[in-house]
# Entry
Amino acid sequence: MPQQESCRVLVLGGYGHFGARIVRALSITPGISVIAAGRNPAQAAARLPGVDLSRIELCRLDTAEAGFADALAATGADLVIHTAGPFQGQGFDVAHSCLQAGMHYIDLADGRDFVRDFPAQLDAAARAAQRSAISGASTLPALSGAVVDALAARFDQLHGIDIVIAPAQATPLGMATVRAVLSYCGQGFDGWIDGRWQRVVGWSDPQPVNFAHIAPRLASPCDVPDHDLLVQRYPGVATVRFRAALELPFLSRCLAAIAGLRRIGLPLPMEALAGVFARAGRCFDRFGTDLGGMRVTLRGLRGGVAHTVHWDLTAPMLHGPEIPTFAAVLLARRLAGGQALPTGAHACLGLLTLADFESEFARWQIDSEVS
# Structure
């Protein structure tokens, strides 16, 4: 019987903050050949610790260069996983290039407009190519949506969805992540609150939140795809909130101060502040722990009585940064295993179940529980 050819998966940004983790996971997956692509392959050895470089290909690709589409097509990849953020303000050219080359496409985007508009912008091209294009294969909205889907059946009427992510202080930070965070710091965005769209300011007004196994933290609002996608997915829900909670209150209040200054119109150099904030944050690592967490709280009615359910995730030993990679890894393995991904363009909502993620939690000693 002829041996099945391996699935060629190209990870764009393959030795970056999240890309390196995906390369590591897929390089030991049977049936997958990994191509780690970026602007400087010479950096790969230093940025891919624990990866047997003899098991992967290295490729130079720069999305900003004129010949990117041709260079991408020449790789012969079956699937491209795009990790090179930030996606806030990024266009859809990379996804179009993948589809024109006959490749499936997955990204880790958390930009609200990018993920929300992705299906409308790419669906026709994806269906014409008979390929799958999936955006937001990350903690949001892939995991957050899977949690809500799993718990919503416990309610007769679902009224509120509240999601909080709490990274460990010592979590390594990619510059794309820091730039994404600061992009909406002090900027107003629409949040679905009490059945209507209301203006919310990013990283303002930090409020305490309790978790199952980590100390309470101050959480502030962030602009993410869930604000739109979960409102659409659950008609009748009155409030959808997403917040992020830094481990150290001092840093939360620093971001709130920056948000306040931007809100009154002070022209702060946010690009320069991204580097400053990333470096300064490292100075406080000794005051934090290695515990990260996530809490999803649903409120509504069951049997006519008010009902609340909490789902808590606790990630030890700085394993939190693995979580945003799980959805892309799971989908890539699904494709390599011979299961078709859905044709067309989709936000990564409803494509994976909470049970799918739990298999990855176990690999990393990540605990989750419902209360």
Notes: The radius of gyration is 20 Å.
